[in-house]
Amino acid sequence: MKIIVAKDAGYCFGVRDAVNIAYETTKKYGSIYMLGDIVHNEKVVADLAKAGTKVVENLEDIPSDSPILFRAHGTSTPVWEKAKSRNMDIIDATCPLVHEIHNEVKKLDKEGRHIIVVGDHGHDEVLGISSQVQNVLVIATPEEASKLPKMKRAGVVCQSTQTIENVQEIINILMTKVFDLHFVNTICFPTKRNQEQIKILAEKCDIMLIIGSFTSANSKRLTQLSSDINKNSYQVTCADDLNPDWFTGAKTIGISAGASTPDYIINEVKKKLKELGNKK
Ligand code: SF4
After folding, report:
1. Range 97-187 has CATH code 3.40.1010.20
2. How far apart are CA 133 and CA 113, in angstroms?
3. What integer best gives the mean pLDDT of the chain?
4. What is the reported pLDDT for 279?
5. From 73, 126, 187, mutation site for ligand 1 pocket: most ligand atoms within 8 A of C-beta
6. Which CATH class is domain 2-10+190-279?
7. Residues known to be catalytic
8. What separation in angstroms does the CA of 141 have from each of 67, 147, 260?
């Protein structure tokens, strides 16, 4: 059984840096607080909790002498302002590519454009992007785009982990609705790269495994992209989820992983696959 792991499967640099910052800060201060989980991966969150990170829902739940870590996918403006007004010690782990999206939104807004964000409703990154300016429209699907009224001027950005296909479909519809449309493609380069790699792997492998939490939007999107090409695509959270029956007669197994999946989980899946291969 041949196992091919996508070259850039797993942690993107933004998540890797944020997780490292969380460990370093915890080591320095003994503990660190964050609003919500650092990444959408239960194992990473549990490992960090063991090291001393504490997850809370509100700024009020954080002791005044403890640092707060703002996560990779960004924090909404009201939360930033509140933390600053309370003189909190903010450790900013926001990915630079998310900061870039915030800046693009502000530029488009200054041009007098109605801002449209292509992204998942209620996702933290999308909430952060939308909070940069007033009156933002969030569009998740082509169906939602087709219900929009005609507009004179609009500026469009997207959540960093969107699929090119979804964004393209939405932009095609917006072209029929907006007279003066400025689209900035803010899908980040690690996402584009992972999506390209999984499409190639899904073509040439008998079985595809996508490793990632079911709470991770980008892992689910990778699974969808893979399933569209290869119906033998399975999303797993860890090695324990592997079902030996999937691999009967399979010669080539392709592996990719979401941006919040750590290397050690990918290695455990590879190891278990090798063991299964030796038994067959
Ligand atoms: S997915 Fe992209 S934007 Fe989000 S943290 Fe990773 S590199 Fe940054």
Report:
1. yes
2. 11
3. 94
4. 65
5. 73
6. alpha beta
7. 125
8. 38, 10, 24
Number of neighbours of residue 9 by Cβ within 10 angstroms: 24
Residue 108 contacts residue 157 (beta carbons within 8 Å) = yes
Residues of the chain with CATH 3.40.1010.20: 2-10+190-279, 97-187
CATH architecture of the domain with residue range 13-95: 3-Layer(aba) Sandwich (3.40)
Read off the amino acid at residue 123: H
* Banded pLDDT at 127 (limits 50, 70, 90): very high
State the amino acid at position 50 in one-letter form.
Answer: K
Enumerate residues lining ligand 1, CB below 6 A. Answer: 12-15, 72-73, 95, 97-98, 160-161, 188, 190-191, 259
**pTM of the complete model:** 0.92
Please state the rounded mean pLDDT for residues 213-234: 94
Ligand 1 center to 152 CA (angstroms):
32
Structure tokens at 262: 């750590």
- Going from the Cα of 134 to the center of ligand 1, the distance in angstroms, rounded, reads 24
